[in-house]
């Protein structure tokens, strides 16, 4: 065996393995994957022709036949070698999805012209023999025009290296290393070959780089959501990172399917994914008509992000049409009578939002910031509204409130119909922020729950209420107990009973002075810990009520078995009382609860008329603005003195 070719022979199986893995892992779709296949193929062919040329060119003088063979092999070697360098740059551009940077004619000419020149020079070599000649006696010799090929290769190498440096900000280090290794290894091996001409390591070096790219860069499992076959959440986040790092202007259309979760439960996972695939297919076909560079991403269970690249494209004139098409493509699924309900938000970057966090957040939250019956919103209509700004800064608002004690407890009196006085009150938390003013708990409690900040808030509430009771003569004021809302996270704390026992001791409170309010979710989502806690607290002498009855899927059988003494009927049921069916519902709810021996509180009573009606129907307690809004400690004490 010709020892010079030793490394070339080693490179061949590596290329074969790469091509094999590409097909096994199915990374064959998409422009960058196709280009990578071509790259590997061309490099493998370069190696083959290098071997052939070297094998035929070694013996002088050559026969006519050997000469033609050698000449052809040399031609193919040069062709594929130079094409590979070019294809690699194309691969880098498509992999980083920055093609739109090459829309301008001048940039395109600058990019393609050198390659065109190189190919012309190479293909016309049989006419002028100025690239290389092969003579029977002296063998292979280079001509002056080979400099064009060298210069071209250098041009594309520098171009690719520069491009990678330019893209470094949004690429993970390992990927950048793998991609840039192509150039580093090529230059290193050329340098090596200059010193040791008997070791042709160049193609071997390239094969190692290709292998690195296959392992570290082309990771389908990282990019594609395997179930629906679209790039997934991770890919979307990486894309946003890139967009913001490079300040690439884009338009993003976020489609959130509001009932995705329900439909998934109803159809089952496999069918549901088929449905999503079908919707996505329709959208892809439709977006393709726009002749814009775009990508569709999927985030489970039901969000699609369509990112349109490029500054020059103004999406807004087309938005009406796009919205209509989105609705149309979201049709009923096969012979199931289900249909996804889309809510759409369009975001212009950098016009509407200018950072990654806000882009991600708005995509996740926009539908909560618009009225329920509104299907479309432009980001610019949301950004700047108080609700949006508060939401965007909720993290710092809550942290500030926790460290600087920005919370305060208010108390809403609850009227007992039997006692004809106010015998209890609900403790309701209030947040006052120096910048944004009063923030309603309906907004910050769910946010605190999702940010994992609800426990310190819950601890504050418990401490404040226990202290308030201990500092005032509640019995003297006619107040038997205070209602405290417990969040699900609090109920899940293993040490909740101990915590309360400590507070009990610290403030000298009797358990009968506190009643805890929980919601149905406490029982829905979780099991044993919450149940054990509630049981332990009941045994300690605390009572529990079920809050917001009528807003969930209440199961009367289960409720009757839980250790709950009071049911709080939600305001939404009260608001419905003016209608005939609503009136009947509330009557039946009251009768049903009486049947299973529960006491009833009705929340949200705002008028005397409703108060009288509910008293007549047999409710036990009434809470609402009709009697009083939630009051500060001082005002509450004043209220009790005056009214009890
Ligand atoms: P909730 O526990 O159902 O509290 C009753 C809510 O209804 C209170 O709203 C109260 O101000 C309001 N409300 C009472 N009567 C009327 C009325 O006649 N008309 C109207 N329109 N509203 C009335 P708020 O204080 O905004 O609290 C909202 C929710 O935030 C509470 O609902 C509760 O789920 C949560 N929350 C409040 N404080 C706490 C707390 O200390 N801890 C926890 N975990 N959650 C709390
Ligand atoms: Mg409550
Ligand atoms: Mg309630």
Kindly describe this structure.
It is a single chain. The chain is of the alpha/beta class and 644 residues long. The protein has three domains: 6-218, Rhopdopsin 7-helix transmembrane proteins (Up-down Bundle); 222-387, Reverse transcriptase/Diguanylate cyclase domain (Alpha-Beta Plaits, 2-Layer Sandwich), CATH 3.30.70.270; 393-643, TIM Barrel. 57% of the residues lie in helices and 15% in strands. The protein is built from 29 helices and 18 strands. The strands form four sheets. Strands 10-11-13-14-15-16-17-18 form an eight-stranded mixed barrel, surrounded by six helices. A five-stranded mixed sheet has the order 6-7-5-8-9, with helices on both faces. Strands 1-2 form a two-stranded antiparallel ribbon. Helix 28 (608-617) links the parallel strand 17 (599-602) and strand 18. Helix 3 (64-95) packs antiparallel against helix 4 (105-123). The longest helix has 32 residues, at 64-95. The protein starts with 5 loop residues before the first helix and ends with a helix. The mean pLDDT is 89. The structure holds ligand C2E and magnesium ion (2 copies). One magnesium ion is lined by residues 426, 485, 517, 547.
Keywords:
alpha/beta, binds ligand C2E, 5-stranded mixed sheet, elongated, Rhopdopsin 7-helix transmembrane proteins, Alpha-Beta Plaits, TIM Barrel, single chain, 3 domains
């Amino acid at each position: 065996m010709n020892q010079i070719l030793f490394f070339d022979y080693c490179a061949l199986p590596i290329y074969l393995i790469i091509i094999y893995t590409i097909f096994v892992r199915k990374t064959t779709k998409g422009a960058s994957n196709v280009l990578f296949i071509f790259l590997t193929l061309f490099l493998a062919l370069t190696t083959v022709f290098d071997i052939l040329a070297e094998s035929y060119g070694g013996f002088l003088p050559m026969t006519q036949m050997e000469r033609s063979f050698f000449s052809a092999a040399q031609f193919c070697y040069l062709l594929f070698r130079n094409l590979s360098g070019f294809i690699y740059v194309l691969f880098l551009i498509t992999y980083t999805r920055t093609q739109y940077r090459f829309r301008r004619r001048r940039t395109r000419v600058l990019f393609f012209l050198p390659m065109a020149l190189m190919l012309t020079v190479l293909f016309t070599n049989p006419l002028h023999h100025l690239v290389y000649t092969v003579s029977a006696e002296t063998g292979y010799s280079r001509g002056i025009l080979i400099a064009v090929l060298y210069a071209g290769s250098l041009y594309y190498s520098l171009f690719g290296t520069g491009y990678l440096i330019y893209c470094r900000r949004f690429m993970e280090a390992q990927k950048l290393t793998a991609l840039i290794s192509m150039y580093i290894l090529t230059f290193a091996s050329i340098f090596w070959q200059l010193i040791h001409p008997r070791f042709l390591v160049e193609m071997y070096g390239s094969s190692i780089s290709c292998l690195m790219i296959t392992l570290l860069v082309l990771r389908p499992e990282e990019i594609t959501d395997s179930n629906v076959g679209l790039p997934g959440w991770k890919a979307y986040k990486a894309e946003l990172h890139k967009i913001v790092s490079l300040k690439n202007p884009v338009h993003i259309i976020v489609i959130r399917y509001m009932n995705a979760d329900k439909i998934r439960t109803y159809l089952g996972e496999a069918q549901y994914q088929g449905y999503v695939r079908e919707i996505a297919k329709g959208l892809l076909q439709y977006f393709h008509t726009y002749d814009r560079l775009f990508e569709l991403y999927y985030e489970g269970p039901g969000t699609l992000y369509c990112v349109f690249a490029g500054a020059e494209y103004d999406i807004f004139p087309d938005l009406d049409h796009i919205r209509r098409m989105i609705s149309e493509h979201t049709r009923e699924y096969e012979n199931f009578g289900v249909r996804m309900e889309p809510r759409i938000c369009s975001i212009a970057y950098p016009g509407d939002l200018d950072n990654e966090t806000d882009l991600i957040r708005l995509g996740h939250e926009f539908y909560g910031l618009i009225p329920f019956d509104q299907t479309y919103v432009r980001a610019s209509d949301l950004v700047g509204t108080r609700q949006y700004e508060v939401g965007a800064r909720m993290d710092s608002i809550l942290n500030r409130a926790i460290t600087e004690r920005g919370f305060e407890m208010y108390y809403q009196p609850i009227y007992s119909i039997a006692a004809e006085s106010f015998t209890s009150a609900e403790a309701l938390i209030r947040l006052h922020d120096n910048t944004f003013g009063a923030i309603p708990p309906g907004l910050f409690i769910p946010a605190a729950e999702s940010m994992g900040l609800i426990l310190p808030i819950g601890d504050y509430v418990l401490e404040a209420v226990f202290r308030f009771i201990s500092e005032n003569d509640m019995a003297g004021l006619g107040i038997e107990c205070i209602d405290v809302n417990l969040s699900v996270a609090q109920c899940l704390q293993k040490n909740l009973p101990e915590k309360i026992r400590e507070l009990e001791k610290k403030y000298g409170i009797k358990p009968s002075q506190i009643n805890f309010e929980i919601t149905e979710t406490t029982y829905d989502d979780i099991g044993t810990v919450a149940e054990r806690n509630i049981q332990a607290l009941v045994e300690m002498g605390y009572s529990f009520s079920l809050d917001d009855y009528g807003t969930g899927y209440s199961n009367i059988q289960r409720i009757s078995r839980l250790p709950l003494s009071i049911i709080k009927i939600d305001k939404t049921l009260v608001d419905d009382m003016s209608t005939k069916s609503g009136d009947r519902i509330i009557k039946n709810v009251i009768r049903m609860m009486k049947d299973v021996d529960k006491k009833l509180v009705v929340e949200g009573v705002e008028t005397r008329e409703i108060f009288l009606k509910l008293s007549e129907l047999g409710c036990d307690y009434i809470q609402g603005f009709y009697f009083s809004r939630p009051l500060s400690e001082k005002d509450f004490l004043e209220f009790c003195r005056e009214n009890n």
